[in-house]
Design goal:
Shape: elongated
Number of helices: 3
Number of strands: 0
Structural class: mainly alpha
Distance between the termini: 70 Å
Order of helices and strands: HHH
Strand content: under 5%
Largest sheet: none
Length: 89
């Protein structure tokens, strides 16, 4: 499953495991099942989730910048909020 996630960038699966990685209690797990290979899979999942969240953060920042620039453009076209408009002389 992990290899197909990496190869196909399965965002639905990444979104599903984000909560598991963030709030999972690894200390509550039976350590007999936590082999080195399983630990590496968990670590790689955590890396993929972090990469995804950083990507989403960048997208949100770009969208926010675009919206702020668009808002400023609207202000220059005479649609500025009343408090920023020049007062009549």
């Amino acid at each position: 499953m992990l290899h197909s996630q990496v190869r196909e960038v399965d965002l639905d699966t990444l979104e599903k495991i984000t909560g598991i990685v963030a709030y999972g209690d690894i200390e509550a797990e039976d350590t007999r099942h936590l082999t080195e290979l399983n630990f590496l899979k968990v670590f790689r999942c955590a890396q993929l989730v972090c990469e995804y969240l950083l990507y989403v953060q960048d997208c949100l920042q770009a969208t926010n910048n675009w919206l702020q620039a668009d808002r400023c453009d609207l202000g220059w076209r005479g649609h500025a909020p009343a408090h920023s408009r020049p007062r009549p002389g």
